[in-house]
Amino acid sequence: MDRQLAPVRALLTDGSIVEVRELGPGDVTTLLDLHQSLPTEDKYLRFFSTSPRQLEDFVQRMVSPDEPQHVVLGALREGRLLGAASYVVTDDPESAEVALVVSHAEQAHGVGTLLLEHLASLARGRGVRRFTAEVLTMNFRMLRVFTDMGLVWTVVPDGDVVHVDLGLEPCERYLDAVAEREAKADVASLTHVLRPGSIAVVGASRSPDSVGHAVLRNLVDGNFTGDLYAVNPHASSVAHVDCYSSVTALPETPELAVLCVPAKAVPGVAEECGRRGVRALVVISSGVDAEELMKPVRAHGMRLVGPNCLGVSTSSPAVRMNATFAAHDTLAGDIGLVTQSGGVAIAVQEELRRLGLGLSGLVSTGDKLDISSNDLLMWWKKDPETRVVALYLESFGNPRKFSRLARELAQDKPVIAIRAASSEAGQRAAASHTASTATPSVTRDALFRQAGVITVDGVPELVDVVLALRQPVPGGRSVAVLSNAGGLGVLAADACVRNGLRMAELSPATTDLLRRLLPAVASTHNPVDTTAVVDEETFARCLDVVGADPAVGAVITVTVPTALGDPTGGVHRLTGKPVLAVRTGQTERLADDVPCYAEPARAAAALARLADRAEWLDRPQEFTRAGDADLQTAQGVVARNQEGWLPPDEVVRLLKAFGLPVLGGTLTTTEEHAVAAQRAYDGPVAMKAVADDLLHKSKGGGVVLGVDGEASVAEVFRAFQDRFGDRLRGVFVQPMAAGERELLVGVVTDDKFGPLVVTGLGGVETDLIDDRAAALAPLSTADADDLMRGYRAAGAVLAETDEAAVRDVLLRVADLAAALPEITELDINPLVVTSTGCVVVDARVRVAPARPTDPFLRQLRRTT
């Protein structure tokens, strides 16, 4: 393994950026200077001495290539070493002694914790499972760092010294602690982008039809509260803002610079900004060389939005910043919007404007070389002015971190995503049934669904859901339709059913009250037809009666104006239940902030999204792991078979290590061996050929069932020899398994998204019926239940089978895939299920070398 890892950028708690990298022989002088610069007290706490002996020799050993058991990471800012964390592997290869040193001036900024996180991640990838340390009892700062890590640790006092043992397994408590530290640092850094005290527009042209002029004009017209500067060497002022010849010539250092210069000039201007001390850049220009731009961004620790973007805006009264070239100013509101497409940003903004709704903030990420949706999820979670978050993403940089962030955010604030088209053209020819299911759109939709993200397919649908989210979520999926136009009420009822809602059965008390209010010809059963003659007051009273029925979770009203009147004015909010109105014409907002849609189908679709959110919020979010897994045995299987499809006996060994109910069998290589295996099972057996390139055994003629007796076994064995010739590696002999149903359970692993668990109809039905459900590992119990019930035939299957047993298999398979990244594909087919349990009859597993990855490690986006 290459000892020197690529440097990464990461944030400290104050929002400043450091480079974290492995230190080597060239860093001896810098590392020695760091140690020697420590005050006397810090030296004593680090070395138990105020004058550590042979310090130079100690430092040289730490970074020597001749000491492979020594590993040192450093945090540097513009070339200056702020701190270093190191470990030395002990006699036990899974244990290492850890040490930490941080410049005294930097000890309050989270340098130590950041370094230990990266060191622990690096150590885990190299087989180290725990850190040990000896710390003076008076060294409260160091003990606090260990506590704050969130890892499981034990301490043993021994006089003036505490012996610390720190487990490196990334438990939920640890991931939560890392996420909280990352959010704090990210919010601090994004303050320079979304709450800047000063802005310079570089490339502010006098031409009204230029991007630079439009950005500056929007900032002026929006009454930006901070200091505003323009950079244009050919003008004295633009839009009544004084111009300066360069960033260097500005009277003060701007906190944020918006670059609207030609693409070739962008890297040079970014370098000038970095030298001047600018904290963040928004690069509007397109066609920019990414690597050349990132050089000054990295070197000077700046945050970057873009390039190739619309810009950023915030409606906060404290800032009032519109640093975009959109045609209209952003209305103040409570919706946070992040989008890769400037066109989508403008379309959403205009639709919301028409309805009197606005944005709390807009970030157009463009090519997102640095700031991405993950950053904004952390920002908006902490932002009290944001109530709803909307996303348009064309790609994911770190989907596993996105899933965790979105899941946490969605608990408090609804998250809506417009699904971008996912091309399946690049999907490889899949070798397993599971892999054929794992298209980009299936994987993306599984991520959104599990994270509680509401998905829509366009801007109008996004706005429909945003309107609906101004109502409370329903207490269930039951709906009542109240209409003064019977036909439209029926259409609304049909639309509800199509969208997975159900029509509520109104109680006799409700229908009796409605009969007293309405004409005799009215229909008092759901959908309720009030007839065209009712007035606003009567319609409002009917709405109260229907809404009070315990069987009703939500109400959709449908009204049309007639010559006798228009009851729309009687539509109002209900306490604790959503009301969505329909009035043919145009989507709008009624009084009392009731959303009103142009047609019943749109109202029903929006209400269905509210019901989905309500169900997701009610789900238990706990992740449980099988405590009886034999990870050592499973890792041994992977170590012995580094690449390719595992032999059947190794598959059995692997699955049994995770407690899966495997039928098992005997891998035979001779006719006599096969006969002996059948005799031992004392009954009919299944015989399966194990041959090169034979993956779908049934299709390839490699399976014979119900073989009984020595002669029959010998005959089948010889038939396999004739059919597969030199490709035959053996014959797997299994006892026959009987059950009511056969399922497919599988895994395919994506480098970015991680393992995708798939289930559906198994056996011969797998190839005949494309009916499967998918979810990303790890699975919560609720995720497993959704997966178990997510395919079309699930209702019929589960009515005849042991749900608890199927759920247990899904959770164990997900645990197996999460624990062993070397597993690239896994197919259990069939999983034979009965009313009292289930058994794995056949399975295939493919493995490949896996590079250790840590999707939750704190680091800024990498670019090449």
TrEMBL record:
CDD domains associated with the record: NAT_SF
Domain ATP-grasp: residue ranges: 652-861
Database matches in InterPro entries: Acyl-CoA_Synth/Transferase, Acyl_CoA_acyltransferase, ATP-grasp, ATP_grasp_subdomain_1, CoA-bd, GNAT_dom, Ligase_CoA_dom, NAD(P)-bd_dom_sf
GO function term, MF aspect, one: acyltransferase activity
PROSITE patterns: ATP_GRASP, GNAT
Domain N-acetyltransferase: 18-171
Domain of life: Bacteria
UniProt entry keywords in alphabetical sequence: Acyltransferase, ATP-binding, Ligase, Nucleotide-binding, Transferase
Documented EC number(s): 2.3.1.-
PANTHER family: 3-HYDROXYPROPIONATE--COA LIGASE [ADP-FORMING], ACETATE--COA LIGASE [ADP-FORMING]
Name the UniProt record assigns to this protein: GNAT family N-acetyltransferase
Taxonomic classification: Bacteria, Bacillati, Actinomycetota, Actinomycetes, Pseudonocardiales
